[in-house]
UniProtKB/TrEMBL annotation, chains A, B:
Signal peptide: none annotated. Keywords: Lyase, Thiamine pyrophosphate. SUPFAM superfamilies: Thiamin diphosphate-binding fold (THDP-binding) (SSF52518). Its EC number is 4.1.2.-. Pfam families: XFP (PF03894), XFP_C (PF09363), XFP_N (PF09364). GO terms for molecular function: aldehyde-lyase activity; magnesium ion binding. It comes from the Bacteria. Residues 27-386 form the Xylulose 5-phosphate/Fructose 6-phosphate phosphoketolase N-terminal domain. PANTHER family: PHOSPHOKETOLASE-RELATED. This is Probable phosphoketolase.
Length: 803, 803
């Protein structure tokens, strides 16, 4: 790996030398920039504390103070410092930039900045640029009926709430992909830096192509403390920290201190170097002058926690300690001394100098904000729906598997999908990404490599295949990174798909939570434009991780997803390749959802022609007439949802036809899981009458489900016929064994399904016991065969639909 | 931070210089060690491929090959290499050591080592030390009815399955805590190293006290490839990798190559240096000679993936490429050339030299294994129940909150618990750890700092409080690390508690899955002894994250937990401090469970005296007579589960008594959530008759629940009276607001509960509409007041039980 070229020159500037670099700010610039920062800090403190008297034009009285003091001060001045300085760079260089507050609990900062830039008042008219507007701005913060305390979706310019820490770098890289002109400034909290996702997030630089992607500027904000503890990275020596960041592939610049004037000069000088270095890296890559990965510049900003806030309160250190984390001075309504200290603190920012008589930011300060879309609070990249372009989707019908007769031909569903995805990628060379944790080929989507490579900025050997500096696929063995990259990509107005082993998608349960909450909240914000859905393709699923065993077997992500608001959640379990194609096309066209698609990768029987598949997926569920012999009045209904359960149900139907030819059996297959729910609970919910038409009001229903059986009960418990629902699914029994042994272990196998019918259809009389015994014997024989031969029985392996 | 002392001397050995260090192995030692390694590799390949002919005493025929070839070869020779060399250290130094295979898919290696050490045959008699035993060993691997393909609980010496990657360092540090004589050798896969949890797991050294804890020896196994891709750490320059590991606080030694003889010498020489360095660090700390954190040695082992396996198969590179990941040569039953190549491969290990006529390892090789408990496969630390000592628990009754009259006094439940935990820690100074992601004080357990500190090996400032090199509390802003530390601690036979914000415990959903699966599996393994339960205390819960808002509001971990096997899962929602004490005592005495306890930290009304609390918790649920006026025949039943829902139910009861004094209301409080379930579904499940006695067979039940309401439906859908259950809970509505506004947003508030009663008790007649309107008006008034004043109404804030 070469260290030559421009970045080497930069790398040779020792960290400490930056302290003595030129002082790029003239006296007037320095004063103005400091005033802007003071204004932002003032607005932040005002939001935390004030109900009224927003410019302190009267002495501060108890009734001006909010009764509940909520918000986080500690990180706020640092965020304001970064934003204010980045504004200077944007103005000077006309660079498109967005800001991500890793410590998103610093909501007062990002709200203040959006207000100072005028964006807030444009989008929220009652928060105008005057005293009344200031009062409203302050009052609404963390107030009932107002806005949240964090960098929530309600905050213009925010696409990263930071409420749950750890994802800022993954989001930042995702936002930068395919945005060659964009710089994503990502403030990393030093507490946040202890999280696993953030610790691996630094490696995002191994996937960022300086030629075709934008830049990420990490600013590690070492303010030294978390809620109640110091942070690790603030308490290791500078050389150790420098080694760590260098080892992550960065060129770190240290900006450290607490004297505002000196720090302004240092930050400005450093940013000048940093943006020169970014420009040089990009120029080298874009002119073909360099193809090696170069270390990207980053900043280590070491400032006191709660900088410019009260040094001590009640004799205890606050500034520069963890006590600055939330509200530094409490009980300001009832404690006069505290209120006086608050007033002194607020006045230390000299609000009279900052705002004019009407309460508007002084015009000369207003000029420090960038204009129009260059304002970070108004960047269209931070309201990605504004930039969203529809995908150019190939006609999925052309990728259909031929199905002359159901359940007699075999295909690998995800492999079929891979061919379509290949052409999705080919047609959308800058607007779609496929991410996966080293599982894209394992999940049999490798057709995509016919038209693209995997993005890879680390070393490439001649023996490597399908790796390149620029590729549309990202493979990193971190589900957190996959999810974070994709979220950042989607929220900036693009499209994508995350393919993952089903069991391990739980690794991002909490990230999913946050994204679903984000989508749900943005649905209620008029100025937020819809973004593309987050699409999960879960393969290598619970029933076919028979080779890896118990640790790889878990279908519970569906349950987790179903806890979130119905308006943003969709779950599909297509039973074969053609239905998978239809579902995938639908998902990639959709907006503002999380779509979970579960599909197998192993050779499996195909059930529906493409025409049937489209009709079936359009309804979301339906009776499979070809598999039913009920003439509209079944003795028993089989429900099935998922590829393996559907296969077992059909094989069970076959057994029933052999052994009980007069039994009237109906088969209902479910693709769109939420159709099962009540229409009042989910927009896809099936009206009651239709549900009863399918599942009957009173006949036994044996439901074979892909996941944990109780989810079906949960979705159907309001249904009239619910008491007759008997659900089979995964009961948390698993190991390394054969596919059919897996279904037997969980009583989802065809033989057991027949036993379930026998147990629930009273009319069978004496035939019941015999057939039940026959099935029990078949199970024992199947198990014995498997333990002897290590394979499923020929009957099972070779079964096809014989009718 | 000083770099002086012994580790500096070591650090001054340049990485490359190790290559030219002495060759510590004599000719005979080298030959024996290589033979042992060959034996292990032979056994690994045999497990993957062979059904029969285990020592190749006949030519290899199709029927000797397993019909399904399952297992992972790529990592296996490297794991065997490490284990074999560590054995030499154990023998030479008599050091207690355990082995954690981060790439736990290398099951063939750890099984092989346990077999070579004799442990396997001791524990699994049918796998003896002869030809029949070898046949059984080979056949059972990844075979129906046999053992899993990974380092699963079935493998002696394993406490880390590694099926889901990323946790090996956290587990290793957890195992090393308070085990001063133990060395935990932790092999980190280079794919695994890309995961977030592993990337932060390196920082475990900031919490390990060399004086009182053991040592962790990370071995980063750079074999270069994942399933289908190169790994990041294998594709950055050595200087960048060295910087990264140095920045993580380690002193890395590189062992790189592919020539076995040279690599044996290099590894042996390096291990000698490494163990000298570990000894020096420990000696310095234990003699008081050094108090500064020193870099711990670690090894970077760079070997080809699938080392010693086939170089190419069908003309494509296998050894040294990702194609070595699973089964390098496929279709060996049907493809004669493949089978011949397999036979050549197997014979390359020269099995005839390794095993005697009877199939037993040659005696001189057997001597290379350590003896007795020093065998890593037989270490009691890897079967922690063997070492488990009961906690010395203070009598929780002595920490009781006085409750003269229910719901009139206030206490912070977790603060009360904190006092008890303080004394638990004091009485168990080497056997109990409290972990938390920087939330222990926030969760109001800070009484513990009266008797201990937070473990902290990074720099300590004079201004710091409660930090020390040795402390019983570990705070790191990584739920993954907290969970991993605790799992490692528990699985080696100790006790602990993880306190966490409720919403963010989802971060470890997938780790919880793996631990629950581990516990469940070990229940079925006769030689595994029970370990202490994994205890979660979830506080700062959904109803009282009103200040952080929506991102911090999620009660779904309970749902996630409920998907796992009932035999290992317990969920408790104590409504007040005394019930929390009783529950916590119960949990800390229990074995082999995951206990989830949800409890609030805010001042809240106290309901039960300690005597009542013990009785109530013993039953798990019950009628609160003092809150009921039903005389055995209620018109309506209130169920409540969780502190906030219980408060709202009691306030609703109060409203009903005021407005409908003749309405007969029963209150049933639930502490042990699983009591709601059917006794066939969960060992704690309530028998049907008892359930009907509590909830009636036919009366309306308004159930106020802490979490997502559908869980209550899921748990009770088989109950006779289920159709009359109407559940209120968290409906995924949240923001930054007041506590009462939060319950109103989700229709869980007292006024809405009264409306729910009104809607469901038909006998109310004309009074219903008026009361309903009255309650609706009260809601509107409460909301208006809150939006005006930023506070809940005085009625709500000041409410106490008036009867």
């Amino acid at each position: 790996m070469s260290r030559e070229g421009l970045s080497t020159a930069a790398a040779e500037v020792p960290v400490a030398a930056v302290r003595t670099a030129t002082e790029p700010l003239g006296e007037q610039d320095l004063r103005a920039l400091d005033a802007y920062w003071r204004a932002a800090n003032y607005l932040a403190v005002g939001q935390i504390y004030l109900m009224d008297n927003p410019l302190l034009r009267e002495p501060l009285a108890a009734e001006h103070i909010k009764p509940r003091l909520l918000g986080h001060w500690g990180t706020t001045p640092g965020l304001n410092f970064c934003w204010t300085h980045l504004n200077r760079v944007i103005r000077d260089r006309e660079r498109k930039m967005i800001f991500m507050a890793g410590p998103g609990h610093g909501g007062p900062a990002v709200v203040a900045q959006a207000y100072l830039e005028g964006t807030y008042s444009e989008l929220v008219p009652n928060v105008g640029q005057d005293v009344d507007g200031l009062r409203a701005l302050f009052r609404q913060f963390s107030f009932p009926g107002g806005i949240p305390s964090h960098a929530a979706p309600e905050v213009p310019g925010s696409i990263h709430e930071g409420g749950e820490l750890g994802y800022v770098l993954s989001h930042a890289y995702g936002a930068a992909f395919d945005n060659p002109d964009l710089v994503v400034a990502a403030v990393v909290g030093d507490g946040e830096a202890e999280t696993g996702p953030l610790a691996t997030g630094w490696h995002g630089n191994k996937f960022l192509d300086p030629a075709t992607d934008g830049a990420v500027l990490p600013i590690l904000h070492l303010n030294g403390y978390k809620i109640a503890n110091p942070t690790i990275l603030a308490r290791i020596p500078d050389d150790e920290l420098t080694a760590l960041l260098t080892g992550y592939g960065y060129h770190p610049y240290l900006v450290a201190g607490d004297d505002p004037a000196a720090m302004h000069q240092l930050m400005a000088a450093t940013l000048d170097l940093v943006f020169d270095e970014i420009a040089a890296i990009q120029r080298a890559a874009r002119t073909g002058a360099g193809t090696e990965r170069l270390p990207w510049p980053m900043i280590v900003l070491r400032t006191p926690k709660g900088w410019t806030g009260p040094a001590t309160v009640d004799g205890r250190q606050v500034e520069g300690s963890y006590r600055a984390h939330q509200v530094p001075i409490s009980e300001c309504r009832t404690n006069d001394a505290h209120r006086a200290q608050l007033e002194t603190w607020l006045r230390s920012y000299r609000p009279d100098e900052l705002f004019d008589e009407a309460g508007r930011l002084q015009p000369d300060l207003g000029l420090l904000a960038p204009r129009g879309d260059l304002r970070m609070s108004a960047s269209p990249h931070a309201n990605g729906g504004l930039l969203l372009r529809d995908l150019r989707l190939p006609d999925f019908r052309e990728y259909a598997v031929a199905v002359d007769k159901p359940a007699t031909t075999s295909a690998e569903a995800t492999r079929v999908l891979g061919a379509w995805l290949r052409d999705v990628i080919a047609r959308n060379p800058d607007n779609f990404r496929l991410v996966g944790p080293d599982e894209t080929a394992s999940n049999r989507l490798d057709a995509v490599y016919e038209v693209t490579d995997k993005a890879w900025q680390a070393e490439i050997y001649p023996s490597d295949d399908t790796l390149a500096p620029h590729g549309r696929v990202i493979e990193v063995l971190s589900e957190h990174q996959c999810q974070g990259f994709l979220e950042g990509y989607l929220l900036t107005g693009r499209h994508g798909l995350f393919n993952c082993y089903e069991a391990f998608i739980h690794i991002v349960d909490s990230m999913f939570n946050q994204h679903a909450k984000w989508l749900r909240t943005t649905n209620g914000i008029p100025w937020r434009r819809p973004v593309a859905s987050l699409n999960y393709l879960l393969s290598s699923h619970v029933w076919r991780q028979d080779h890896n065993g118990f640790s790889h077997q878990d279908p519970g992500f569906i349950d987790h997803v179903a806890n979130k608001k119905a308006e943003v959640i969709r779950v599909y379990l297509p039973p074969d390749a053609n239905t998978l194609l239809s579902v995938a096309d639908h998902c990639l066209r959709s907006r503002q959802y999380v779509n979970v698609v579960v599909a197998g990768k192993q050779p499996a029987p195909q059930f529906l022609t493409m025409e049937q598949a489209v009709a079936h997926c359009t309804r979301g569920l339906g009776i499979w007439d070809w598999a039913s012999n009920d003439d509209g009045d079944p003795d028993v209904v089989f429900g099935c949802c998922g590829d393996v359960p559907t296969l077992e149900v059909l094989a069970a139907v076959d057994l029933l036809r052999q052994h009980l030819p007069d039994l009237k059996v109906r088969v209902v297959n479910v693709v769109d899981l939420m159709r099962l729910q009540d229409e009042r609970e989910h927009p896809h919910g099936l009206p009651e009458a239709e549900f009863d038409t399918l599942f009957t009001p009173d006949k036994p229903v044996i439901f074979a489900y892909h996941g944990y059986p109780w989810l079906i009960h949960r979705l159907t418990y309001r249904r009239r016929n619910h008491t007759n629902f008997h659900v089979r699914g995964y009961k948390e029994n698993g190991t390394t064994t054969t596919p059919f042994d897996m279904v037997m272990l969980n009583d989802l196998d065809r033989y057991h399904l027949v036993m379930d019918v026998v147990d629930r259809v009273p009319s069978l009389g004496s035939r019941a016991a015999a057939l039940r015994q026959h099935m029990a014997d078949a199970r024992l024989a199947a198990r014995a065969y498997t333990r002897e031969h290590g394979l499923d029985t020929p009957e099972v392996r070779d079964w096809t639909w014989p009718y």
